[in-house]
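Input chain follows. Return structure tokens only.
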Amino acid sequence: SFAESVDAVFSNATLHWVKPPEEALACIVACLRQGGRFVAELGGARNVATIRQGLIGQLAARGFHPQSPWYFPNLGEYARLVELAGLRVAYASNFPRPTPLEGESGLRDWMAMFAETLIADVPPSMREELWDAVEDAVHPALYDEGGWHADYWRLRMVAYKE
């Protein structure tokens, strides 16, 4: 908590990691002054869907069934939560943002960084084979002559405390 209310809360690529979202929004509303604004960008409902499907499918084929670490809401769902928390949504958008991943190992690097909790129970000796299988599964959709890209979908929102 803050000693005083703040004029604005800005969040970029954080809130899709925070569950339950209602608690995060309650904290945001509590620290905003009247008229204060909340500006956020987070992963939307289709965010990295191809990567998630490929990875979760390959994990399931090997007997692993992890819980998703992410919360990727659709626009209507998140707008409703924001308004139930006490803010008025002034702007909301959900849009694709394909993002290049660096180098031939770009997809593996992405998975190692962002999907660590999904693979936590996979023995290190099985991970190379898992990475190979995921790459094979998603290659048609996420690889082109320029290399790998992540199928990001972003949800942007501006809301005010009235």
